[in-house]
Specification:
83 residues, alpha+beta, two-stranded antiparallel ribbon, 18% helix, 16% strand
């Protein structure tokens, strides 16, 4: 895995990041294969985590299995990005 610190906002603008966090998965060929929210419950309550569908984990699992990603675009949520 990798994390990019985008202090200049160049990459965020290039990928049209709207919120923080706004999750992206890029495969080993450089293809963007997922973008959106971490999961389907926009909540700060830790009790909601077990009830949520983790979109990122599902996409990574499907990618590792050589399957197409069923939900490659989902709604991101969080604080809006200010460029």
């Amino acid at each position: 895995s990798a994390v990019i610190l985008d202090e200049s906002s160049e990459i965020g603008i290039m990928y049209s990041a709207k919120t923080t966090p706004h999750m992206y998965i890029v495969d080993k060929t450089g293809q963007l294969v997922y973008m959106g929210g971490i999961d389907n419950i926009p909540s700060k309550n830790e009790d909601d985590i077990p009830k949520s569908k983790n979109y990122v984990r599902a996409a990574l699992d499907e990618m590792a299995a050589g399957k197409p990603i069923k939900e490659s675009i989902t709604r991101p949520y969080g604080c809006s990005v200010k460029y």
